[in-house]
Amino acid sequence: MNRKELDPESSPQAAFGARVRTSREAHGWKQEDLAERTGYSSTHISAVETARKVPTLRFSRSADLAFGTGDTVDAFERQWHEIRHGSLLEGFPEYVGYEGRAVEIRLYEIGIIPGLLQTPEYARVLADSAVRRGAITPEQADERVSVLAERQAALVRPRPPMIFVTMDESCLRRPIGGPAVMDAQLARLAEFAELPNTLLQVAPYEIGERRTFDLPVYLLTLSDRSVVCYAESQAQGHLDRESTSVLPMLTAYHQLQAEALSQAAAVAMINQLRKGTP
Length: 278
Hints:
CATH topology of the largest domain: Endonuclease, Chain A
Largest sheet: 6 strands, mixed
Number of strands: 6
Number of helices: 12
CATH architecture of the largest domain: 2-Layer Sandwich
Distance between the termini: 74 Å
Order of helices and strands: HHHHHHEHHEHHEEEEHH
CATH class of the largest domain: Alpha Beta
Shape: elongated
Radius of gyration: 21 Å
Strand content: 5-15%
């Protein structure tokens, strides 16, 4: 039997394939057995295991079903996100995997509209600006916009998550892409506030030192009621699942909500900005 040995350290794709093979053999399965359980051909299984084929999201989820690794830190879907979004900040691809399955999403953002609420035009302006600064390549800019569209699409499902958004006032007042882009973006925020599964608030400048966060923070409540926290700086992101550090972040978020404007007041501020009034 010919067996291609693969160095898992050679690439993320090779690490994925090697892990599929190791998991299959640990179950005592042949490639044909895994093929039957995933709905793929044994040839396809072989190609993934030897890194001749790039794994897809569908394949990753099928592998999770076969091996019972879904909704775990060792999920093949999580590993796929790391391959697919390798140019993104550390921790963010893993966060995206959790975000698509969360039952509650809490977001706090400073300076820019949260990604899940961005229009394609607003997102493209931000990505192209990063390219002009030399921070990312044009290909990475395309990837960022693509990832954002995928994240937004993942939330359109029969039982969508509750989404709580608290934005610093700077998110609304910072002009991005010119009047037309900003007007469409503000209109999108007003539409978001009308959805039955959303709450939109604004943390106004006047709360001063009572603002509980100085960096963007994302909190996810999963189906088992555990909470995942993701926070990022300019250079890196960090995903935290430890309750001892995550629960204080959740408390701080609730404290911020108590200081923030109500949804009605937030929408009124948005509408005033659309009319060009301070």
